[in-house]
Amino acid sequence: MNTVVFACMDADTLGGIQQVTHTVAQGLALRGHEVHVIGLHQATDPFQYVERPLYEHHVVQRRPLGRGRRRVARRRVSRLLSSLGPGYAVLTSPGVVSWVADLIPPRLHAIGQYHGSFDHARGTSHFASVRRGYGDLDQAVFLSPDDAWRFAEEALLPNTAALPNPLRGWPEKVSFLDVPRVLGVGRLAAVKRFDRLITAFARAARTQAQWELHLIGDGPELGRLCSHAASVGVADRVVFRGRVPASEVGQEYLNGSILGLSSEHEGFPLVVGEAASYGMPTVAFDISGGVRSLVLDGMTGVLVPPADLDAFTGALSGLMADPARRRRLGTAARAHAGSFRLDRVLDRWEDLFARARR
């Protein structure tokens, strides 16, 4: 088996990159690989993703990475990488690539991941960072075939591949989709645009008196979102659930009927795959190749143009009023989500390693 190293700027904050990193690391370790997870600095509020990790975990610096500490951090990373056997170094963001790509010894094949979407990168500094740093790596990995193709075409990368994020588990039970409840799942942060979801729900719920919207997660937007729900007349029908323990999230999906994804941008939103694994359809803005990989419009859910609140409201209202269509889309969503099960994604990681060797 091989040595596999995952390097993150911060490996232990509550976030998508970190969740995926620890999930894949544990899965590969269970398959017999020697796996290491490196955080270049310590998280302010560390979160433990795996209760009994079978991989080694390293924190390079206990303090944030300041300008004066970069040399020390690089020296420590170089020593660690030099101590490992042949295999693969997975650099999980453009920041990590810029910090450590030149430290990777020849016996480790360098793989750069980008966890955002092409659409988001194109409007930020990420596009230039990926174009500058990923082309010389053995592989540049993106979240969907569409993202990989667009980076190959527009960033002129010769080494692109597509590899989705995995689901952490696969439930045996599915939702009956008969509880009149729309779910919004994620951190209550501005980028998630839960204000849009609340507005769309308020409009759709005018003719659906029994329905509620449950928002699962906490964050800095809580106060503003509470005020917004009151301003559009649904303060009594929008339930702010706060952070739900991971062990209880499955029950939330079992008690929901529609997932609403209203984000400004997303790479590969795992909440959509998780909801689909419980047989739940999603209404989402068509904002990335990753979203389109998860939501097949009209088959497993409904996609509407980005920021088109009227279209989102219509799609949400239509599913709220049509239980037979919800079940049809939900059944197809669960079948489609099977391709993102952890074992299948791990197979694709091992195929990627084989390609990187050639």
UniProtKB/TrEMBL annotation:
<keyword id="KW-0328">Glycosyltransferase</keyword>
<protein>
    <recommendedName>
        <fullName>Glycosyltransferase family 4 protein</fullName>
    </recommendedName>
</protein>
<feature type="domain" description="Glycosyltransferase subfamily 4-like N-terminal">
    <location>
        <begin position="15"/>
        <end position="153"/>
    </location>
</feature>
<dbReference type="Pfam" id="PF13439">
    <property type="entry name" value="Glyco_transf_4"/>
</dbReference>
<keyword id="KW-0808">Transferase</keyword>
<feature type="domain" description="Glycosyl transferase family 1">
    <location>
        <begin position="178"/>
        <end position="335"/>
    </location>
</feature>
<dbReference type="InterPro" id="IPR028098">
    <property type="entry name" value="Glyco_trans_4-like_N"/>
</dbReference>
<dbReference type="Pfam" id="PF00534">
    <property type="entry name" value="Glycos_transf_1"/>
</dbReference>
<dbReference type="InterPro" id="IPR001296">
    <property type="entry name" value="Glyco_trans_1"/>
</dbReference>
